[in-house]
Design a protein that fits this description.
- This protein has an eight-stranded mixed sheet with strand order 3-2-1-4-5-6-7-8, sandwiched between helices.
- It has helices at about 15-25, 40-45, 55-60, 70-80, 95-110, 140-150, 165-190, 195-225, 235-250, 260-270, 280-285, and strands at about 10, 30-35, 50, 65, 90, 115-120, 130-135, 155-160.
- Helices cover about 50% and strands about 15% of the residues.
- The chain is elongated and about 65 Å long.
- The longest helix has 28 residues, at about 165-190.
- Bound molecules: NADP nicotinamide-adenine-dinucleotide phosphate.
- NADP nicotinamide-adenine-dinucleotide phosphate (NAP) binds near residues 14, 37, 70 and 71.
Length: about 290
C-alpha cells in the first residue's frame, strides 16, 4: 500500500536536525523547520523546507513533530506554551533515560503521543542504512509512522518504556568508549618505547576483531548466570590487568581504565573461585557480587 508522505516539523536545525530534514525532504515529505538562530534555516528553505516563524506555528502544521535540541530541558522550555494535542512528539535530543521518561510523561499529560529516538550515527550517515535509529515509547505512534521513519536510516523499535532507546544509546557509547580509551592507553604505553600509533594500529584492528568474536560467549554466560565453564578465568584476567597496571606505573603512563577493572575482578574473587569466568564481573557491576 502506498502511503501519503506525512508532513513533518523539525524543531532544531543544528548538525543532526539539518541532516534529518534533508532525509525527509529527499523522501518527499513536506517539512517545516524552526530554529532558535533563524539564519541556520536558510539553506533548508532553499532545498524546499518551509520556515516557521515560531515554535507554535511549526507544531500546528504537522502531526509529527521532531525535537532535535540540546537536551530534554530545552525541549520542555520550547514546548511549554504550545498546544501539543493530537501531535506525535518524536524527541531526538539526547538526555539521561530518567529525564526522557519525565519528558514523555509531561508530553503525554499535554495530549501528545511520545516517541523517543536515539540516532546512532554521525549526521552524514543519516538517510542511509548505516544510520541505526533506535526507538522507544508509544508503540501506536511507531505503528503509525514507523514505515515513513525508515527514510532516516535503519529503524529498530525497542520498548514502550520511553527511556529504553536512550539507555541502549548509553550502553553502546559505553562499549565504544571502553575501546577508544583502551586504544589510547595502548598507544601511550607504546609511545614510551618510541613506537608509532600507525604501526600499533596494524595489530590492534585484527586483535580487536578477535575480542569482538568473544562477546557472544560472554553474553551467553551472563544470560544463563553460569560462570563455571567460561574460556577466560578471573585469575588469568587479574594477572593481565596487574601487568598493565604495573607497566603503566613503571612507564609513568596514567593507568586509564585499568584500576576500576581491577577493582571489579578483585571484588568478584572475594566470593568466587579463580577459575570462574571473567564474565561474572557483570554480577559485581550490578552489585550482586
Ligand atoms: N550530531 C550527532 O552526531 C548526534 C547523534 C545523535 C544524537 N545527537 C543529539 O542530537 C541533539 C542535537 O545535536 P546536534 O549535533 O544537532 O547539535 P548542534 O549542531 O549543536 O545543534 C544544537 C541544536 O539545538 C538548538 N538548541 C540548543 N540549546 C537550545 C535551547 N536552549 N533552546 C532552543 N534551541 C536550542 C540549537 O539552536 P541554535 O542553532 O540556535 O544554537 C541547534 O539547533 C543533541 O541532543 C545531541 O546529543 C547528535
Amino acid at each position: 500500500m502506498k502511503h501519503e508522505k506525512v508532513p513533518v516539523s523539525v524543531l532544531g536545525t543544528g548538525r543532526l536536525g539539518t541532516a534529518l530534514v534533508a532525509a525527509f525532504l529527499a523522501a518527499g515529505h513536506p517539512v517545516t523547520v524552526w530554529n532558535r538562530t533563524s539564519g541556520k534555516t536558510a539553506p533548508l528553505a532553499a532545498n524546499g523546507a518551509t520556515v516557521a516563524g515560531s515554535v507554535a506555528e511549526a507544531v500546528a502544521v504537522s502531526p509529527l513533530v521532531l525535537t532535535v535540541l540540546l537536551d530534554h530541558a530545552a525541549v520542555r522550555a520550547k514546548l511549554s506554551e504550545v498546544d501539543l494535542r493530537d501531535r506525535t512528539l518524536l524527541n531526538i535530543s539526547s538526555s539521561a533515560p530518567d529525564d526522557i521518561r519525565a519528558l514523555a510523561e509531561w508530553a503525554s499529560g499535554r495530549g501528545a503521543a511520545y516517541l523517543d529516538a536515539a540516532v546512532m550515527a554521525l549526521p552524514q550517515a543519516v538517510g542511509t542504512p548505516d544510520a541505526q535509529v533506535l526507538y522507544s515509547g508509544s508503540a501506536a505512534a511507531f505503528d503509525r509512522y514507523g514505515e515513513q521513519l525508515a527514510a532516516l536510516g535503519t529503524s529498530r523499535y525497542l520498548a514502550e518504556d520511553p527511556g529504553v532507546a536512550e539507555l541502549y544509546s548509553i550502553g553502546l557509547l559505553s562499549a565504544g568508549y571502553g575501546t577508544l580509551f583502551g586504544f589510547l592507553h595502548g598507544v601511550a604505553l607504546l609511545d614510551t618505547a618510541g613506537m608509532r600509533p600507525t604501526d600499533f594500529l596494524e595489530m590492534v584492528v585484527p586483535w580487536l576483531g578477535g575480542m569482538l568474536a568473544f562477546l557472544p560467549e560472554l553474553a551467553r554466560e551472563i544470560e544463563t548466570a553460569d560462570y563455571t565453564s567460561g574460556e577466560s578465568s578471573l585469575e588469568i584476567n587479574l594477572r593481565a590487568l596487574e601487568y598493565i597496571e604495573a607497566t603503566s606505573r613503571s612507564t609513568d603512563v596514567a593507568p586509564g581504565f585499568v584500576k576500576p577493572a581491577l577493582d571489579l575482578v578483585r571484588k568478584r574473587m572475594e566470593t568466587e573461585g579463580p577459575t570462574d569466568s571473567v564474565a561474572g564481573v557483570f554480577e559485581a557491576m550490578r552489585r550482586k557480587v
